[in-house]
Design brief:
single chain, about 220 residues, mainly alpha, 9 helices
Amino acid sequence: MAKNDKDNYKFLFTKPVDPKNLAGEPVFDHELLERITVTSPFIALISNLPLVTFAMIIGILKNSTTATMSIALWIGGFCFWSLAEYLIHRFFYHRYSSHPFVRKVQFLFHGFHHKHPSDKYHLFMPFFGGWPVAFFSWVLMYILMGAHSFLFFSGFWSGYMFYVFTHYYIHRFPPPFRFLRPLWRHHLLHHYKYPDRAFGFTTTLWDRLFGTLPPKVS
């Protein structure tokens, strides 16, 4: 793995990002491992869309509920993603740890992105990392919800896809519409000024509820 010293770890907590420090550093020193971390929007789409589609088809075939209930399950999963996104971001990615292995995982999954926020080659989670997370998420949902978990997971992972593609767009382009500017500002404040604030991404709702709004958008 590329260097993961204490200086790098600070990017998750207090160290400001240099706007010029956008790319040019590998995630891994090993060439093959580095290649499989490089992900484009196309690869992200073709690696995640089948999961969403397959889960939806299975959910429709297995569910004996009404169409309204099926739609509600999907929408519920989609909305639940925003809460999961907030909790993971705040309490795992930005939770300080003294354990070397945990620090490495945090840096690989999120710290590298904080160090190089506009590196277009590493803005998506590679499929070898995303698929195990997706499977683990579905298993938990299946334990709790049984057959309903397929539609719920389809909505949940659709929420994830909405997140990753919007996230990519925010780091690569200006907001296409004026009403989206607050969302852009919210996330960029997290990166460039307040790494201990603005943990929500697809919505500011959870930051408002849990008191983690950055000062400029309070």
